[in-house]
């Protein structure tokens, strides 16, 4: 694996993932201790962002794992996706309605985000 | 469950994913992406070996544990696009707020109009949030978290499969806006897809995803009783 032309050993990814996991656990612990209404993963993301912004963590340190996760997110979600099989009885009764609602509602989100953005003339800013 | 069975079910996921990626490289079409093909492979294998989903899910828990770190890692692309983001902060907030509320409202309204059971409707409402957040919110609304998890993932899949085409049809040119819209509509999968449009779009996708998750997790439990 190569980052900025420098060759990195294979175990590097494991170390990166371990660091990310610790940050996630840290977020989780803080949420539990302080009873915050914030999702643990988002807080972990916030902590990492803070560490990056203050320069404590260099961005290139996490380059490999970050790219790995983005590329192979489907792999991590696969067990949850296979959960469709459990929808059996619900699908039989309400299947087409559910599919219809999911599609319509998702298109509505896309339509309103893009539509509102156009009204506030964000379009063309690049 | 034996260690052998646990391992082989985990390997099943990895192999199916690998095969799905291979297939997608040969036939680069949205409908041939691993989201569909790998899923079918796993379901087929479970069916042939008479394995129930519960067993499969327990064996594959390690993959789900990685979802936490995966979301934390998104701080990096967010950091890269930060200067750009600061420039657009108010319009980004407006846009994501509009998108998220229309998602929640259409789901609630359509569920009522089509006479879904209230439990199913409540499970549909948090679907645009990232999977873990959607599940927690579903619980506090009175829905079924497991059902919501599947709806959330399906929403992501629909967003990624239909989003780019739909946005092109709408005539959206800006890559920033496309990224933001996909992240808002399609949670983690949408944000990951946005990174194909470059660093700036990736950051926008993550902002859309995070803000949506926060809005749904923090606001819907209080707001919904008023609406319904």
Automatic annotation (TrEMBL), chain A:
Its main location: membrane. The chain crosses the membrane at residues 12-34, 40-57, 69-88, 100-120. The keyword Transmembrane helix applies. It is found in: Cell membrane. InterPro entries: LrgA/CidA. It is a multi-pass membrane protein. Keywords: Cell membrane, Membrane, Transmembrane, Transmembrane helix. GO terms for cellular component: plasma membrane. This is CidA/LrgA family protein. It comes from Marinithermofilum abyssi.
